[in-house]
Write a structure and sequence with these properties.
The chain is elongated. The protein has five helices and no strands. Helix 3 crosses helix 4. The protein folds into two domains: 43 residues, no CATH class; 43 residues. With 113 residues, it is an all-alpha fold.
Length: 113
Amino acid sequence: MAVLLGVFGGHRFYVGKIGTGLLMLGTLGGFGLWWLYDVILVAAGEFRDSDGRRVIRWNPSDPGPAIHRLPADSAAMAEDLEAVRADVAELAERVDFMERLLTQARERGSLPR
C-alpha cells in the first residue's frame, strides 16, 4: 500500500495516522522524499501505526512469530513458569558454588584479595 498509494498517504490513513496522511496528500508524499522514507521503513519492518506498534504482519490471518503468542491455557503457562523457576534455582546454586570455590582459593592464597 505504501508503494502504490504512498504519495497520497494511503498507508498512513490505513494505520490511523490521519494528520500525517493529510499532510502527505497535500504535499504528494513530501515531494516524494517522505514517501521514499516511508517505503524504506515499511520494507525494514519499522513502520509504526498510530498507537506506536510496529506494522510487521502482511497477512491478517498469519498468527505472527511464535515468540509473541501466549500459551493457550493457564496450565501451559504454569508449566512454563515452573521451568523458569527451576532454571533460576539452578543458576543460584551455581553462583553459590563458585563463591565457595573463590573463598577457598583466597584462603589458600591462590587468589589476590
